[in-house]
Amino acid sequence: MKPLIKRIFFIILEILLINKLFRYLNKGKIKVLLYHNIVNSEQKKLFNNGINKNIFRKQITYLQKNYNIISLSQDGKWHNISKEKVNVLLTFDDGFINNYEIVLPILLEFRIQASFFLITKCIEEGNVPSFIQNPKNHQEFRTINISQAKYMLEKGMNIGSHTLYHNDFSKLSLKYSLENAEQSKQYIEKIFETPVECFAFPWGFYQKEQIEPIKKIFRRIFTVKHGFNLKEDQILNRNEVDGLYHLYATASGALDYFKK
């Protein structure tokens, strides 16, 4: 019953134009949206964060109509920021193969650039990440490989680091966490021959003492805390996206307000 109540609540926010009000109040700010899996309708969702590709297409259509979709370059610079609308950056964590097979064609169709955070050691052969249980039975969750990532770069997508092995930084020593971040950056820069200035904590987990040293390694650092961002921010909040009406409230900032 609880999910149904939430869905009704999000629909009401849209019908009563509350999301439109929040879009006006938050114009000029940056909202970063977080995705993981965009799946075919017949594919089973291994995680709750899987979104049907038809719903994703509707979300993109809605965002293009009501928001200003922006991008980041490999050197961490913003592109196309507007003062007249809420700016939205699309990000994808883990680099699952569906990001290449399903997401990329849709983004190219709509002429949208997005940021993809890849697990460094997975992209060598397109392996299934270690956090997937029974990886042999879940080959649909293998990751993008080097060749595919290079193609995405050629098409204007931004590639960032998601650590060496999708490590939980809340459990790592300061020394190893910094080595992990630095090595992941160096590896991707070497194989793709491009700067890598964006980094996302797996699960959003980290320790406070890691922040300042990692800021010296990467220009943009992404968490999973909710909220808006400003152009000059180095530590960036992100909201994970669920269904269609959830997106409406998430992008506008209404969800952040009512959660508080």
Topology:
Blueprint lengths: L1 H14 L2 H8 L4 E6 L1 E3 L10 E3 H14 L1 E2 L1 E2 L5 E2 L7 E8 L2 H14 L4 E4 L27 H9 L3 E4 L12 H19 L5 E3 L7 H8 L4 E3 L12 E2 L2 E2 L3 H9 L1 H6 L1
Parallel strand pairs: 1-7, 1-13, 2-3, 4-7, 7-8, 8-9, 10-11, 11-12
Antiparallel strand pairs: 5-6
Give structural notes.
- By secondary structure, this protein is α/β, with parallel strands linked by helices.
- It has one domain: Glycoside hydrolase/deacetylase (TIM Barrel, Alpha-Beta Barrel), CATH 3.20.20.370.
- The chain contains 9 helices and 13 strands.
- The chain has helices at residues 2-15, 18-25, 53-66, 97-110, 146-154, 174-192, 208-215, 244-252, 254-259; strands at 30-35, 37-39, 50-52, 68-69, 71-72, 78-79, 87-94, 115-118, 158-161, 198-200, 220-222, 235-236, 239-240.
- The strands form 4 sheets. Strands 1, 4, 7, 8, 9 and 13 form a 6-stranded parallel β-sheet that branches. Strands 10-11-12 form a 3-stranded parallel β-sheet, with no helix packed on it. A two-stranded parallel sheet has the order 2-3.
- α2 (18-25) packs parallel to α8 (244-252) and α3 (53-66) packs parallel to α8.
- The longest helix is centred in the C-terminal third of the chain and has 19 residues, at 174-192.
- It is globular and about 50 Å long.
- The mean pLDDT is 94.
